[in-house]
Fold these 4 entries.
Entry 1:
Amino acid sequence: MGLSSLFSKAVLLVFMVEFMSQVCSQSSVFDVKDSGAVGDGKTDNTNAFLDAWKKACQSGGTVMIVGGTYLLKTIQFSGPCNGQVSFMVNAVIQAPQGQSNEHYWINFNNINGLTIQGNGTFDGQGPSAWPFNDCHNAASCSPLSPSLVLTKLNQSLVQNVKLLNSKGFQMKIEESEKITVNNITITAPADSPNTDGIHTGNVNYINIVDSNIGTGDDCISMGAGTTNINITRVNCGPGHGISIGSIGKYLTDQNVEGVKVQNCTMSSTQNGVRIKTWNSTFSLSVADVTFQDIVMDKAQNPIIIDQQYCGGRHDCIGSSHVQVKDIKFIRVSGTSASEIAVNFNCSSSNPCYDIELNDINLSSENGGKATSWCSNARVSYIGTQNPASCQQALAPAMMLEYM
């Protein structure tokens, strides 16, 4: 394995100890109530939260949110800060009802050593906005606002908090490095549109561990420019599984490499572990990826590589120039809710290669025989193979219904 294997549980523990020692060493606590915040679920607390943040950022310390429900409009907490800052949430932070197409509801930006923690909840009030989502029917649309967006952070920690019913994505991590997400809970209904749990893009050294994610889209989606990411002990469901991509839609997209997903469970998900790329005409790669010790519990499409993604449409033209290589599926077991448990639909111009299936044991949920389907994929097999190894298809792999 590449650099991702170095960013292990030991590194996570070192980061957490360091973060907690930094937080405990801070003597300054800035309660948002002292800045005028009212936790009645009605009062706009945006200015009060910004005032408390400004004080904590100027000197280092803890922004404290305790008791009640605090209504917040679109807000950005910006650095750089003069010292470590902790955002302690032991209450409900609630978004306004209705449609919002802003780039974020809450944004933490340009901060080194931020800690977001507590037993509280970020409530995006998604049910009031989801009827306005038309991205499944429109060629172009404005996505609904993600709840929590982390941009340009370094050496930071998010732990224990809950994210509930975002309007759009629940959490986005972008242009950041050395971020740990630990023991969080993300919840949205299975039919909520585009409510990805955690989305990453242009990031390096990310740990997502010991968390429970159930959404209406990907539990975790790794976008372009994601490198050296470790996802461990994540329970996913409902949702669309854990996905790399989609990659190759935009000229600005960067390679994805150094991905390790291990000891995770997919329960009644639309997909299990997936790589999806567009039919791009520019060269990119997805490489050095390991899915290991994954349990499928009635996952619809347990193992998928799809290089004719096209946003879920079936009118894809041409072949993808995104090279998918050095991909390992090790000890993937459980039940498939569809007949095709392993589906490699790769590019005719850039076939997938160095694909390894090692000890795969996937049975059909309904008692039938699970099968494999491969197109333009160079696959090696080690150990148990259930379903049996697939023959190369002359035609593209069967198109499955997923987004």
Entry 2:
Amino acid sequence: MISKTLQLSNNRIAHYFEQGEGEPLVLIHGVGMQAAAWYPQIEYFSKDYRVISVDMPGHGQSTKLTDGAPLKAFVDWTIEFITALNLGAVNLAGHSMGSLITTGVSATRPDLVKRMAVLNGVYKRTTQARDAVVNRAEELKTGHIDIETPLQRWFGESEAEQIAAARVKSWLEDVDLSGYTTAYAAFAHGDQIYADDWAKIQCPALVLTGTDDPNSTAEMAIQMASQAQHGTAIVIENERHMVNLTAPDEVNNAMQAWLETKV
């Protein structure tokens, strides 16, 4: 992977990895992760596509946004990043919070998105689920990051899952606390902001999750896909929140079919 940076407005830096040639595929990770969190997809798709995996603001080497920035600020940042790449419309995929950003970009700037994919996304959480994630966002303001709880929630005990868990743990340990706190709050409060815009999305839309992800449920995936004009929902059995790492073959096959969808 080639490490690159783009200069954005207000002297902000966007850092990303790029690999391969061909039609552009832009990948946006979730809260607390880094651009490298798409490593199975970068390796697989860079054989035929120009894969660009970006550090979300306040993560990896990308400049953070102002404290308390809402989800729309992350969407606007991503729009600026894609525009600065000067590649025209891209295939855009997001995981977790990255899926909320992907939805926002696809709904507000359809000219920039050829196809969109949402992995382990959230859609109109229940009051109980929203309260739980908002409480976690508030706890971060105390300066403490709970790493073990999400690892236990996201990964099983198999060797493959534990290898992925070790990588995820290292990213969570390296994250900028301020950037992480701002992003998590935007994620916690962002599930409804673009939820009613799914009907506007006309490009091919893949919505994927695992049956064992209690926060990004199969029901959410089906609802999102049903709202889009050309949506497809895929639910992978016995998989949790980090499905792109724990079931890379199934995810890559689903994304390959999505990328081959005519537009």
Entry 3:
Amino acid sequence: MLSPELLYALRNLPLAAKQAAEGFLAGAHASRRHGAGMEFSQYRPYQPGDDLRRLDWRLAARSDRYYLRESEVDTSLTVNLLLDASASMNHRDDNGLSKLDYAKLMLAALAYLAQKQGDAVGLSVLSPRGLQHLPARDDTRQLPRLYYTLEATEATGTFPEATTLAPLIARRQRALTVCVSDLYEADGEINRLLARLRAVSGDVLLLHLAAGNELNFSYKGPITFRDLETGQTLQVDADQQRPAYQQHLQQWLRDTAQQARQQGLDYHLLSTAEPLDGAMREFLRRRQAMG
């Protein structure tokens, strides 16, 4: 797996997504089931109504017969990707990547994987400026739309109000919802949204994104921290505060994971210092469980 720093250094989100996803798939274990999935398994004759994108045109040119490539997953799904674009996502790790940078790479790779599976994939950017929503589609132009939206996204302000996010829960639809957030909230607003999404969509994969320097508290000596959403500052001696910080952080992470799982969310903590394979592995695992 390429490191997130190297993927980001490509300065090309479509290429980075493909490199990350294909690299992951190259090392993935093959499934035992057949369908429109990620690993080629066998051919079967074309039948009226089949998806022409799965037709093997080279074989048709050689044999004058039409066959479809069957592969490892037998169902297509609707996948809705959600990105928290509040200002706390601008926090930067020691590797130079912000949480938002990492989240863009991650969601682009997941979108690539979803389309590779034959899924309809959509994207919602959650920002105080308003909800930016791309409805789920499975056509060939969806990935460029999604990449363009991700590339243009900036993290600003606080997590949007419930009225802004109301369209996300306006109708009940069976889907796999993948939410990427650092879960920085003032009064449980992210938690309430995810609970409602769980009620209307059925399956929510929560990818809790934290920076490596947050998890390890790699700061040293006197330092001033500034809250990216409120602007408040705090001066501390990092070496003195490290033990207490680590203790409080671990307790908060345990409580956060427990609360999410009690609500029926599929919760996973990810670090911006680690490769993207953890997110892709959890996505495919959750997807297979839904099939």
Entry 4:
Amino acid sequence: MTATRPRVLAIAEAANPEWVSVPLVGWSMASALRAHADVHIVTQTRNRDAFLRAGLIEGQDFTAIDSEAVAAPLYRLASLLRMGEGKGWTMVTAISALAYPYFERQVWRQFGARIKAGEFDIVHRITPLSPTIASSLAPKVAAAGVPFVLGPLNGGVPWPKGFDSERRREREWLSYIRDAYRLNPAHRRMLRAASLILAGSRHTASEIPARHQHKVRLLPENGIDPSRFNLTAAQSPDGPLRGCFLGRLVPYKGPDMLLTAAAPLLRDGRLVLDIVGEGPMRGALEALAAELGVTEAVRFHGKLPHHEVQQVLVQAHLLTFPSIREFGGGVVLEAMALGVVPLVVDYAGPADLVTPETGRMIPLGTRPEIIAALARQLEALAQDRTPLVPMAAAARRRVTESFTWDNKAAQLVEMYRALMVPT
């Protein structure tokens, strides 16, 4: 008989409530599951103190695995090979793939006997999110007769044509041979052994071989904690149109394209722009703003603590975010949760989140085409912002109905139960 609350061993090597990006995703999903299932989280020792500060009890709620003997030197190697802070993410992932097997061996050493003894109904590897990193746990868990859940997997979005210079500036040399991961027999064994494969995007779902597609379910990696994003944008009809860019200041996120497209409106006072984030382009962007004559209309906030981000974002009418290679698009959901309408490129992660009712999307094209399309959208909304009010309301509804962490956890538990039904 299926238990009311599934007993879940949640593997989240990267999970930290005090960090952002993948560690915050890992933490948010694993901790949200605790309201719907009996969950024991297994994470890496670097996250231990943050777990304790969050009120979790070591041994009862979580176990911290010390894999630093392998992880630490490889992390230092990855930092050297990426050739710049915030660059070379494909290289970082590749080096992580070398360190991760040692972590899983330690997990099996501590939990293998308990898995074989039937103490868990489900084993779910939440992080790493990268679809390229194989799991040696998957076939062992499957051999023990316990369903193994993988994901949400996300990443590997192809670089669009015409953006090779951005690719080189990001030091993404390894991305040219990324597909070599498919040749790894451990990766094929993982997919065979998994009972359920969660894909964080339509692109990643399409990368799963056809013979495993019956096990694939779409579940975007990002979600919203309503306690963190609990304000509502006014969408005021008065004053200039307000845009906000939120993200790392790196080439593929397109902040320079945004400044160029917005320059005429910024100069004549019909648009003001907040830029929240830090990165290697900061100096060049400030110089570009001066060259375009828009310095007075653009405010660079730098990197803000996560809890302060919504204070700036909620003042905007639009999230102006022309990224051309976004895997998940967490900032898009954050804006939608606040009733800030996203203006994004119709490609990859954001395209899975934004609908015609909840935001505006511009076609993926060359740099000049994106800049021109972005300028047209901004000009139209500066002239008439009335469409923003219903879109903002629809965006908030969409997030509330489908993208809170609690909602996603409830969806996951229903998937677990389906796997637990005797066949």
